[in-house]
Amino acid sequence: MKEFIDYILQFGNLNKQQTDLIISKAIMRELHKDEYFSEAGKVPRQVGFILEGVVRFCYYNNKGDEITHHFIDENNFVSDQQKFELQVVASEYIQAVTDCKMLVFSKKDWDDIGNTIVGWHNITALITKNCLLKAIERRSPLVSEDATTRYLSFIENFPALINRIPLSHIASYLGITQQSLSRIRKNIR
């Protein structure tokens, strides 16, 4: 819980009563590897904060290929935020890459927090902005780099994840085949 409260307090001030309210709304949830936190074709019903584990955002392109578009690890929020807020059908999946432990908030509880704590919406807006900037910062270089450089950038940006994520997901994230990734890994050893 401490990691969660410390994370939130980076984006605004809350007193003990407010943090106690937030914690009282959180439900501890375990997500097993390959289980979905949110699914395409369904309305996202929760926001999570990852205490342990890694999830990925993925979708299927028009050829039926699975595309991983980013990863989220410990001490970060996870949700399909726009679809969650609007309560509309999601177009991508959020899937556990490893076993995960997370704090989860239902839509009702998330809204109750926002309706009770003055300034909560400002805090969550800053958290959302931070998450988007991190995702763009990690993703932008991948567009213009060759495959080897993209892989080396991945190692640099996600050093703690390289041995926790299946190569197939890393290859998908990098936009290359698993065979190409195996060749690149062999060549840089």
TrEMBL record:
Record InterPro entries: cNMP-bd_dom, cNMP-bd_dom_sf, RmlC-like_jellyroll
Signal peptide: none
SUPFAM superfamilies named among the record's database cross-references: cAMP-binding domain-like (SSF51206)
All copies of domain Cyclic nucleotide-binding, residue ranges: 29-113
Highest taxon above the source species: Bacteria
Protein name as annotated: Crp/Fnr family transcriptional regulator
Organism: Flavobacterium zepuense
